[in-house]
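Q: Can someone sanity-check these two? First one:
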Amino acid sequence: MSAAISLTDALLEIEREYRRLGGAPVRFNFAGSNVLARQIVNGAPADIFISADVLQMQYAQNAGAILPGSSFSLLSNTLAVVTRQGRPPIKSGRDLTLASIKRIAIGDPAAVPAGIYASHYLKRAGLWDTLQPKLLRLANVRAALAAVENGSADAAIVYHSDAVMSRGSVLAFVVPHNEGPSIVYPAAIVASTKNRAAAEKFLAFLRGPDARRIFEHYKFGTYRVVD
């Protein structure tokens, strides 16, 4: 299963619960959604793809790498800003312009969903041009989080789900829904799968109450199945 790196902690916990309830083991490949989409299009083996945005799923679909009709919206998320421990508190995007905030880590806006979402937020807030000299563009959202944890950056724009599991940073604020972009995680079955029945079973579990409880613990929003 190829899944966006921001899903790592939630999916590993869900997989343990899935096995506890009698399901088969699931092997994961976590990376930036853009990396995973290219891998799948180029023939890398996978049964399920969960992207952190619709564009990467569409790229895989347009290349014929996704089983037709299998894609659906699984999760939502929100952006959050984290800072280094011991830093003065910040409460809004405008505070990122303070002189005490010298480096701001984000996912690369030219490549990864988290970076694209961060750029949309900063542009909407009128801060994109002002903050350009401070931005540290990294390979994925976990790299941005790690930059704050290891002291390479003073702040980072990440997902709320990443912020809550971090032990080396401080959650400064969650971007209000009306100020941030719409973040959707689509899931689908890979067209080349040799385990379609198992893939369908695990996707059904991901949409069920046991997985929903874990996703929501990690601050993901879930889409309820309507019969």
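And here is the second, same format, sequence then tokens:
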Amino acid sequence: MRAQSHVYKTVPGCEIRADVYRASAAPPTPALIWIHGGCLMYGSREGISPAHLEAYLAAGWTVVSIDYRLAPETRLPAIVEDLQDAFRWVRARGPDLFGIDCAPRIAVVGHSAGGYLSLMSGCCVSPRPRAIVSFYGYGDIVGDWYSKPDPFYCQQPAVSREQAYASIGNTPITVPRGPRAESPIYLYCRQNGLWPNVVGGRDPAQEPGFFAPYCPVQNVETDYPPTLLLHGDRDTDVPYKQSALMADELSRHGIENTLITIHDGPHGFDWNADDLQTRQAFDAVLAFLEKHLGPA
């Protein structure tokens, strides 16, 4: 499926793009903003599953797959600004450029770090999206899972600081360069418990208040959007507990939410399209979006 590629934002040295896949239905159509994962350090807008994309389009939704600047060249506050600017651009330009019904019908879907940004959109984007779908995302970026050495990643060969920063430059990027795609910087962060420090540019032990606005689980309010959370209980990258904590906090505030547990599911479980649990989970995603977006 071919996309229309647009520059939704320009910063010095970097154009930030969105790929728009238009639904076959007649405009105006609902819009689905899709956000890639990659620990905020790698990945790109081209990472959307072709099967998922096809299903979203068949349901009559226009899909807008966005890039954002990657860490550590760009720090967390500016990455979240990209998220906010992407929503503003979709609302402002979407009706004319690709025929969406921007006023009431925009939802967001994200995977892993994209799931995190999807959850962030519920507390930092205005107007808020109509609905949020988070595949193995996280609401707390300063917990022990990110702020202390991770046992799973510490089993892998140690990555030195020099190795980690070998592919890091001085200019903003939206697509990883060279060995960056093999994520040495991420391994280094997880082995040393430094992800918040490297991505945020601050030490959570010294400045916990800096990170509070960037933890969705700390910023749920009564008008937070309905949310669907999907997570495997054998996830060795993002703990299942992250989605469970988010579900508890949403329920505490009376927010409609569902947590779908994929039993024995790993990180990225949804790429196994032959698995019955995966198929049923994605059917639930489509039903949830249909409920809150409606058809074209």
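A (reply): Looked at the second one. Residues 4-141+214-293 form a domain with the Rossmann fold fold (CATH 3.40.50.1820). The chain is about 35% helix and 15% strand.
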